[in-house]
Design goal:
Helix content is about 30%, strand content about 20%. With about 325 residues, the protein is of the alpha/beta class. Strand 8 and strand 9 form a beta hairpin.
Length: about 325
Amino acid sequence: MRYLDRYTAYRLGIAEGGLTREVLCGRQWEAIRETAAYAREHAPFYQKKLRGIKLQAPEDFTRLPFTLPTELSACAEEMLCVPASAVERIVTLPTGGSSGIPKRVFFTREDLQCTVDFFGEGMKLMMGPKDRLMICMPCERPGSVGRLLQEGVETHIGARVFPMGLPEEGDSFSRVLDCLHAEGITVLAGLPEHIYHLMQCTAGLHVDTVLLSGNYVSPDAAAGLHDVWGCRVFEHYGLTETGYGCAVSCCPGAGYHIRESDVYVEIIDPLDGTVLPDGCWGEVAVTTLGRKAMPLIRYRTGDISRILPRACACGSVLRRLDRVRDRHMKKGWR
């Protein structure tokens, strides 16, 4: 995980070897204040939402109101902090509920480049330049998550990448299977349900490493991949709203290290919004740091997790999320 520690130190302007938990928290607080000031200055939505609230000490942060998914659906353009000409990519996400109004998330090229760098550094945990990576994630459009992962690996690692897109029944699924066998794929990244289906069709295939991302990962599914393919299994948690990347597991595999240079994570009580201490299960709320197009402040994700209270065996100073529970399984979250 030292790759991500170095990335975090670089992003936050911390000298090499100087990343400690205390220093990191101090720089995060500075980034939070800068984000709030930037959003209030440039986004009409936050000009109104943050009016009259001053961030003079870290405890003031919890006085800031939450940003809700319904507000992202209804007020996306008012959250935009840059002119339309500076927007590199717009992602439209379906939203449940009676209104059915989709969420729209905006990114500048600088925002996307931060994700490219995070993906590239994070993948160093899983592969080297001689590996061959197949990506079974959306790859069709520039700025899509698969394209960003491909760019990160090619730029930071120099490995060969095969962007296959989402495997579906029929020709595209056959094409993925053919590539797996013909190209000597050693690392596979994709949605859990697709990777698990591939495993059932290629039980005799050897893959060194699998990265599961995009949806809820059950412990049984991860264990099944390890048993059948004999591979290392890493897990990634991210949302489009966070710029895709948010947290990734390490070799010891206990929890997901948070992308703390770019995202501040809180665990809150879903009922009253109270911030919960480490070790307690609750709803994940995120504040994006350094985002140019559309910063989000205390955005309620609806996902359930907790901050693991003890340091990781890998030695990283980055905080860890426990395995994120299915966002549709909120009963009994405590």
